[in-house]
Amino acid sequence: MPTPIDPRAPRFNQAVLTVGLLVGFLLDLPVVAPLFALVLFLGAAFGPRFGPFLRIYGQFIKPHLDAPAFLEDPRPPRFAATIGVAFLSSATLAFLAGLPGLAWGLALVVAALAGLAASTGICVGCEMWLFIARRRGVEVVA
After folding, report:
1. Is 72 helix (H, G, I), strand (E, B) or coil?
2. How far is CA 100 from the centre of its chain?
3. CA-CA distance, 123 to 14, in Å (whole number)?
4. Is 31 in contact with 101 (CB distance < 8 Å)?
5. CA angle 64-126-92, nearest 5°?
6. Alpha carbon of 19 to those of 74, 125, 129: distances in Å?
7. pLDDT tops 80 at residue 23
8. Residue 142 clears pLDDT 70, i.e. is over it
9. What confidence tens digit (pLDDT) does each residue in 41-70 have?
10. Quick check: 129 pLDDT over 80?
11. Can you tell me whether residue 69 is helix, strand or coil?
12. Who has greater pLDDT, 141 or 70?
């Protein structure tokens, strides 16, 4: 079983991702797609020590907060981040192929879902992981 995590860390990451992607869209900065794909990849593949915004949360924000009310399984947010990486990598390829409409569409799906998760705690990718895991009989950290 993986060590449970503070659920506020992924929400902070999702909030930064949402703002960054929206600012990138409004200023027409295609570089945000590969940049945030890399950020999500580092955190999903190697853990919070390697995710820049997860690390910022852990080092500078968490020490000033009370303990979280509950801990969560790290696998669902990692799965959700992996889906975000796939979408943002596809957006990057679309930009390179000269398809900015498709690229921004993919990036804005990520922004919308990250914004939903950051503001409400409803993480669609996390819920997908939990659904699949339960159907496969995988033990989930509650």
Report:
1. strand
2. 22
3. 10
4. no
5. 95
6. 23, 19, 25
7. yes
8. no
9. 999 999 888 999 999 999 999 999 999 999
10. yes
11. coil
12. 70
**CA–CA distances in Å: residue 35 to residues 16, 25, 38, 71:** 12, 13, 5, 29
- Do 11 and 57 contact (CB within 8 A), yes or no? no
Q: Could you say which DSSP state residue 5 is in?
A: B
* CA 140/CA 4 separation, integer angstroms: 10
List the end-to-end C-alpha distance of the chain, in Å, as a whole number.
11
Q: Which amino acid is at 80?
A: A
73, 141 Cβ separation under 8 angstroms: yes
Q: HSE on the CB side for 107, CA within 13 Å?
A: 32
pLDDT at 37: 98
pLDDT for the residue numbered 117? 98
Rg (CA), the chain: 15
Q: Kindly report the pTM of this predicted structure.
A: 0.93
Sequence-ordered list of residues with C-beta below 8 angstroms from that of 105, at least 6 positions apart, any chain: none
Report how far apart, in Å, the C-alpha atoms of 131 and of each of 60, 120, 137 are.
Answer: 33, 19, 10
Whether residue 14 contacts residue 65, with contact meaning beta carbons closer than 8 Å, is answered with no
